[in-house]
Amino acid sequence: MSPEHVRIFDTTLRDGEQSPGCSMNLAEKLTLARQLEKLGVDVIEAGFPIASEGDFESVRAVAVELRETIVCGLSRTGRQDIERAASALEGAARPRIHTFIATSDIHLEHKLRMSRERVLEEVDRAVRQARGYCDDVEFSAEDATRSDWEFLVEVFRVAIEAGASTINVPDTVGYTTPEEYAALIRHLCARVPGVDRAVVSVHCHDDLGLAVANSLHAVLAGARQIECTVNGIGERAGNTSMEECVMAIKTRRDVFREVETGIRTTEIYPASRLLSSIIGVPVQPNKAVVGDNAFAHEAGIHQDGVLKAAITYEIMTPQSIGRPSNELVLGKHSGRHAFRERLQELGFALEGEAFESAFRRFKDLADKKKVVYNEDLEAIAADVVIATDDRYALGDVSIVAGTFATPSATVELVVDGTARKASELGVGPVDAIFKAIATLSETKSELVRYQVNAITGGMDALGEVSVTLSEDGRRVIGHGAHTDILVASARAYVHALNKLEWHKRQHQRGEPRGI
Ligand code: KIV
Ligand code: ZN
To answer: What interhelical angle do 268-279 and 374-386 show, nearest 10?
Structure first.
C-alpha cells in the first residue's frame, strides 16, 4: 500500500511571527513565503488579516504571489473577521480560510463567556460563512486538549456538516502528552460523524518540550496534517518544529511507513538560515536537524567512526537537509554566477537592484577578507532584503574612542530623505553612537538588549550585532553586519528603528495582535 500524504501546514508567518522579537515586515514575509513554497509545504498560514493592516497586506501579498501552495488566513468566528480574511485572500490561486473558537470550559467560562450551545451555533455559522467565500475551510477548536472529548465530537461534527474540510485539534497551551494526544485523535477519528470527509490536523505548542513528540504520535493515530513552524518559533516556548517532524518521518521509515510528506528536504537548511537571518534570532547550536552542532562530531571515538563509515554515528546526512558541505565559499575572484547560486542555496532569491546591491557589498567584503563564508553572505543578503521602504538610512559614522579620550560619535542619519548630523558623548563608543541616532530619530524606544557575534572566525571576521528595542509594548530585533563592529552596531540600531516605524504604520488601525 502506498504511503498516505501528511500535509505540512506552515504557520511561521502567523503563529511563529507572534513570538516576541520574531515580527517580520512585508518584504521579509514574502521572501520567506517564496522559500516555503520551494520547500514544498502544502499550506502557508500567512497571517491573521483582522489583527492589523500589516497582517492584512501580508496575507494579500503572499496570496497574490504564490501559485502552487495553499495560502491561508486566520480568523476568529466573527463575521467581520471572516470577511477580512476572505478579502485578503481574494487574489489567491488556492485560498483557505482558517476559523477558530475555543472549546474548553476554562475558555468558555473565563474568556468567551459563552455556553456550549452558543459555541456550536458560532461554529456552524462561521464555517458556512467562510464556505460562502471559498471551498477550502479549516476549523480549529482552540484549547482542544483541555476540552471535554464528547463536546469536541459535537463541535467537529457541526464543523464538518457546515462544510469544513480540515478539522484541527490544537494543544494551545502545550499541555498534552504523546499517549493522551494520540488517544484523543483516535477517539475523534472513530467518533466524529463525517470525519472521513475531513483531514484531521494537529497543532502543538512546546511548553513542556513535547510538541514534536505529540504531533508525531498523533500522525501514528490518524492525523494527516501537521501545523508547524521553521526552527520551531512561536508563542511562548514555540510551535512544533517543521524540520524535526519532517526528518523524523523521513528517517524512521520503519515507524512511519504509512505516511510521507511532500517536503523537499534539501530546502530545509536554507529555510532555517533564511528565517534566522531575517528575524535576527539565532538557532540554538544543539537544535536538532538545523543547529550548528547537529552534524558536528567532537568526541575522538565518534570522529574515528564517522571517518570509517558515516553510518556509525550519523542517522541522516547534512546533504539531505541541504547543508552546504563546502564551508569556505567565495572570494574576491568569484563572479555573479557563483554568488547567485550560493545565495540561492542559502535561501535568498535576489533579483534586480537587490541582487546588484548585495553583489557590490560582497565584492567590498571580499576585498577586505580573504574568504567570504556562508554566514557572511547571509548577513549581506538579509541586510538587502530588509532594506525596503525604510524611514531611516544610516550615512557616515565616525567615532573617537580609546584609553584617553571620552568616547564620542558623529552620525549622519537620513530621515524621510533629509540628511541630519549629530554628535554625542557616551560611556563607550556604542553608547555614543546610539545616543546620536536616538537624538536624530527622536525615538521613544528603549534599548532592551545588545548582542555581538563574530559571524565567522579570524581577525577579519564579519561582526553581527543584534539590537532589541521596545516601544509601546512591541519588541523588535534589528541586526546589522560589518567588518567594523561599531558600524554593525549603528546598522542594527537603525534597522530596529525602521522595524518599529514599519509596525507603527501598519498597526495604526486595528485591534491588538495575537489571539
Ligand atoms: O494555538 C492555537 O490554538 C492556535 C489556533 C488559532 C490554531 O494557534
Ligand atoms: Zn498556536
So the answer is: 60
The closest residue, in CA terms, to atom 5 on ligand 1 is 142
State the pLDDT confidence band at 387, using cuts at 50, 70 and 90: low
Q: Where are the alpha helices (DSSP H) in 325-413?
A: 336-345, 352-368, 374-386
Query: In the structure grid, which three cell numbers stand for residue 493, read together?
Result: 540600531
Residue of the CA atom closest to atom 2 of ligand 1: 172
230-270 pLDDT, tens digit each: 999 999 999 999 999 999 999 999 999 999 999 999 999 99
- Nearest Cα neighbor of 490 from 424, 425, 421, 432 is 432
* Domains contained in the chain, CATH given: 4-279 (3.20.20.70), 294-322 (no CATH), 336-384 (no CATH), 392-505 (3.30.160.270)
For residue 208, what is its C-alpha cell? 513542556
What is the number of the ligand closest to the CA of 166? Answer: 1
State in Å: Cα 476 to ligand 1 middle: 23
Regarding the beta carbon of 203 and ligand 1, being less than 6 Å apart is answered yes
pLDDT per residue as tens digits for the range 460-485: 667 888 888 888 877 777 888 888 89
The reply to whether the predicted model has a pTM over 0.90 is no
Long-range residue pairs from 424-427, CB within 8 A, at least 24 positions apart, any chain: none
Q: State whether the beta carbon of 240 lies less than 6 angstroms from ligand 1.
A: no
Please tell me the number of Cα atoms within 13 Å of 245 on its side-chain side. Answer: 38
Between the two ends of the chain, the Cα-to-Cα distance in Å is 41
Residue among 392, 429, 426, 431 nearest 412 (CA):
392
Q: Which three cell numbers stand for residue 511?
A: 485591534
Of the candidates 477, 479, 506, the one whose C-alpha atom is nearest the C-alpha of residue 59 is 506
